[in-house]
Write a structure and sequence with these properties.
The protein is of the alpha+beta class and 304 residues long. The chain is 39% helix and 26% strand. The chain folds into 2 domains: 123 residues, Gcn5-related N-acetyltransferase (GNAT) (Aminopeptidase, 3-Layer(aba) Sandwich); 148 residues, Gcn5-related N-acetyltransferase (GNAT) (Aminopeptidase, 3-Layer(aba) Sandwich).
């Protein structure tokens, strides 16, 4: 058998430095490319990575089928796509690329006019919000969120503190209760997410994640964590709060955003990721009034 055109390898923490370099060069608001998401969801998507020039190649399993992620980075795009085409042909399956934004689609069309078909991934659109709005809940459209926060503040002796290694065990205890309360509503996705959260907590410092913890009466009632995915955008990987405490979720969202605005003066957007096709999650994300939804396409190579 001929050698593989690409020497894909499993994702390890040692890959963070070079992946971060290419993520910074791409500077995309999408949640698909930052190293944290690649690493923490590795078990679910079975990802393999490689570098060609100044672009990153990622192979994964998507809905049970092999696919690739758009090769982010800088420099010429065509050599990276040609390598993916060769690898797909070598393995004997169609070339399919996930995470194709409108900008990426334009680049593909410029290099390969009519070479791909594009399907909008409606369940995987990222929800992007103005950080200043989430930090204040100002305006009529977010008045309800502000009221929930006011009620929470009135009813609880609360604080919000940066997430540290010492607070992680308490977050895990809260997560167990959260999983029990939501397991039927979210079905098997809870288990997949739980594994990703455990992976994120285990490598919290080495991944460079940032987060915060909401406490009421000294008890952890919510937490959130993520990372900067672009110079002006923070990607919220996970946000959990006690559903029996009115206002806990809006408080976690508001306080994390306030903390991040103090840390990152250039922060403009909060990417609260996709809704995975869950109607309840979709309505929740829409209730925070996104600035826009980042469209992403599934691109398939047109044979012949």
């Amino acid at each position: 058998m001929t050698p593989a055109p690409i020497a894909f390898k499993p994702v390890t923490l040692c890959d963070k430095a070079w992946v971060d370099e290419l993520v910074r060069a791409e500077n995309s608001p999408s949640a698909d490319y930052n190293f944290g998401n690649i690493y923490i969801w590795d078990k679910f998507y079975r990802q393999l990575i490689a570098r060609t020039g100044d672009r990153m190649l990622v192979k994964l399993r998507y809905e049970g089928q092999p696919a690739f992620v758009f090769p982010i980075g800088s420099g010429p795009l065509r050599p990276a796509i040609e390598l993916l085409r060769q690898f797909a042909a070598w393995r004997g399956y169609p070339l399919a690329i996930r995470g194709v934004t409108e900008e990426h689609r334009a680049l593909l069309e410029r290099e390969y006019p009519g070479g791909f078909t594009y399907t909008l991934e409606e369940n995987y659109l990222d929800y992007l919000y103005r950080a200043e709005k989430l930090a204040t809940y100002a305006g009529k459209s977010l008045h309800g969120k502000k009221n929930h926060c006011n009620r929470f503040e009135a009813e609880h002796d609360w604080d919000f503190v940066p997430l540290t290694r010492e607070l992680i065990p308490g977050c895990l205890d809260m997560l167990v209760v959260w999983n029990e309360d939501n397991s039927q509503r979210l079905d098997k996705s809870v288990a997949n997410e739980h594994n990703a959260i455990l992976r994120a907590f285990a490598a919290f410092e080495r991944l460079g994640l940032e987060g915060g913890v909401l406490r009421a009466g000294g008890e952890i009632v919510g937490f959130s964590l993520g990372e900067m995915c672009a110079s002006d955008t923070f990607d919220v990987h996970f946000e959990k709060a006690r559903i029996d405490l009115n206002g806990a979720y809006p408080m976690v969202c508001r306080e994390l955003t306030r903390m991040l605005l103090n840390r990152h003066p250039g922060l403009v957007y909060m990417n609260r990721e996709d809704d995975m096709g869950f109607e309840s999650l979709r309505q929740s994300k829409l209730s925070y009034k996104p600035e826009y939804l980042l469209k992403k396409y599934f691109a398939r190579w047109v044979d012949g």
